[in-house]
From TrEMBL:
<keyword id="KW-1278">Translocase</keyword>
<keyword id="KW-0288">FMN</keyword>
<keyword id="KW-0813">Transport</keyword>
<keyword id="KW-1003">Cell membrane</keyword>
<keyword id="KW-0249">Electron transport</keyword>
<protein>
    <recommendedName>
        <fullName>Ion-translocating oxidoreductase complex subunit D</fullName>
        <ecNumber>7.-.-.-</ecNumber>
    </recommendedName>
</protein>
<comment type="function">
    <text>Part of a membrane-bound complex that couples electron transfer with translocation of ions across the membrane.</text>
</comment>
<feature type="transmembrane region" description="Helical">
    <location>
        <begin position="71"/>
        <end position="90"/>
    </location>
</feature>
<feature type="transmembrane region" description="Helical">
    <location>
        <begin position="96"/>
        <end position="114"/>
    </location>
</feature>
<keyword id="KW-0597">Phosphoprotein</keyword>
<keyword id="KW-1133">Transmembrane helix</keyword>
<dbReference type="GO" id="GO:0055085">
    <property type="term" value="P:transmembrane transport"/>
</dbReference>
<dbReference type="GO" id="GO:0005886">
    <property type="term" value="C:plasma membrane"/>
</dbReference>
<keyword id="KW-0812">Transmembrane</keyword>
<feature type="transmembrane region" description="Helical">
    <location>
        <begin position="230"/>
        <end position="248"/>
    </location>
</feature>
<feature type="transmembrane region" description="Helical">
    <location>
        <begin position="126"/>
        <end position="145"/>
    </location>
</feature>
<feature type="transmembrane region" description="Helical">
    <location>
        <begin position="171"/>
        <end position="194"/>
    </location>
</feature>
Length: 310
C-alpha cells in the first residue's frame, strides 16, 4: 500500500534546532560573567582589549573571506568568541596592537589556512596566546592590578613565596592575572549555563579540574602531600581553559571516553608544567598538546558500529 512506502532521503536524518550561531551565542552569554568580572577588576584596560580583540578577529575573518572569494560567515559569531577568549587570556596591561596581532594570527594562520571553522587542529585563541607569549614574553608576563605591578598567585607559588591572596579573594576575583581568569565564581556561572543549555558536557571540565586537584594535592610543590589542591584549581587559567577552550567541538574528542582521556591528559600536563616547568602556568600548552592527540584518541576510542561483525 502507498501509505506503507518509506521516503528515501539523504542524511542527516536526525535534525536539531541548534545552529552554529545559536551555539556560539550561548557561549558568548556564558562568557559575560567573566567579561564583567574582568572589567570590574581591571577597569578600562580590560574593556579596551576586549573591544580591540573582538574587532580584530571579526575584521580578519571578513577580510580573508572577501579576498579569497569565500562565503562571508562572520555572522556565525565564531570570530567573536575567539576575540573574547584571546582578550580574556592576556594581561590587562598588554598594548592593544599586540592583541590585534594575536587576533590576526588566530583567524588567518590557525583557522583560515586550515580550512575555516571546524577544520583547525588546535584552539585558535590558545594558539594566539602561545604565539604572543613567544613573541612578547615580557609584555605577556607583566601583571598589574589597579595600575600597580603585582605578581599572580601562580607566580608567587612558583617563586616559593608564602604571602598569598586569601581563598575568598581568589574565588571572587580580586587578584592579578589575565583578564578572564581572575574570578573563579564568574567562570563557574558560565559553566552552569553551558550545562543547562547542553552546549557542552561535564566530562572534560570535571575530569580536567579534578585531575589537577588530585595531583596538586598529592604531588605538592614541596613534596608528597604538601599541595593545596583547592587553591591550585582556583588560580591561573585552569577554570577558563577547562570550561571554555578544552571543550571546543573541533579540537576535542567526539566520544565520552575520548573526552575523559583528553581531560586527564590535560590535567596531568598542566600539573607537571606548573610543578616542574620553568613557566608558572601550564594550561595553554597542555590543551594545545592534547589537541594534537585528538585524532589518535578518536581513532582508538571509536564506538562500535551497530551491526558490526568481525
Amino acid at each position: 500500500m502507498a501509505e506503507n512506502l518509506y521516503t528515501v532521503s539523504s542524511s542527516p536524518h536526525i535534525r536539531s534546532k541548534d545552529t552554529i550561531q545559536s551555539v556560539m551565542r550561548d557561549v558568548i552569554i556564558a562568557l559575560i560573567p567573566a567579561m564583567i568580572a574582568g572589567i570590574v577588576v581591571f577597569k578600562t584596560e580590560a574593556l579596551i582589549l576586549l573591544i580591540v580583540s573582538i574587532t580584530s578577529c571579526v575584521v580578519s575573518e571578513w577580510a580573508w573571506q572577501r579576498l579569497t572569494k569565500r562565503p562571508i560567515k562572520v555572522l556565525d559569531l565564531s570570530a567573536v568568541i575567539t576575540g573574547i577568549l584571546i582578550a580574556l587570556n592576556v594581561p590587562p596591561s598588554l598594548p592593544p596592537w599586540m592583541v590585534v596581532i594575536g587576533g590576526v594570527f588566530a583567524m588567518i594562520i590557525v583557522k583560515a589556512l586550515f580550512g575555516g571553522l571546524g577544520q583547525n587542529i588546535v584552539n585558535p585563541a590558545l594558539a594566539a596566546r602561545a604565539f604572543l607569549v613567544a613573541s612578547y614574553p615580557v609584555a605577556m608576563t607583566t601583571w598589574t592590578l589597579d595600575g600597580v605591578s603585582t605578581a599572580t598567585p601562580l607566580g608567587i607559588l612558583k617563586e616559593g613565596g608564602e604571602v598569598l591572596p586569601g581563598l575568598m579573594n581568589v574565588f571572587l576575583g580580586n587578584i592579578g592575572g589575565c583578564i578572564g581568569e581572575t574570578s573563579a565564581l564568574a567562570l563557574l556561572i558560565g559553566f552552569v549555563y553551558l550545562l543547562y543549555r547542553k552546549v557542552i558536557s561535564w566530562h572534560i571540565p570535571v575530569y580536567y579540574i579534578g585531575t589537577v586537584f588530585v595531583l596538586s594535592t598529592f604531588m605538592g610543590r614541596n613534596g608528597f602531600m604538601t599541595g593545596n589542591g583547592l587553591y591550585e584549581i582556583m588560580i591561573g587559567g585552569l577554570m577558563i581553559g577547562a570550561i571554555f577552550m578544552a571543550t571546543d567541538y573541533t579540537t576535542s574528542p567526539m566520544t565520552t571516553n575520548g573526552k575523559i582521556i583528553f581531560a586527564i591528559g590535560c590535567g596531568v600536563l598542566t600539573s607537571i608544567i606548573r610543578t616542574f616547568g620553568g613557566y608558572p602556568e601550564g594550561v595553554s600548552y597542555s590543551i594545545l598538546i592534547m589537541n594534537l592527540f585528538v585524532p589518535l584518541i578518536d581513532r582508538y576510542v571509536a564506538p562500535r558500529v551497530f551491526g558490526e561483525v568481525k
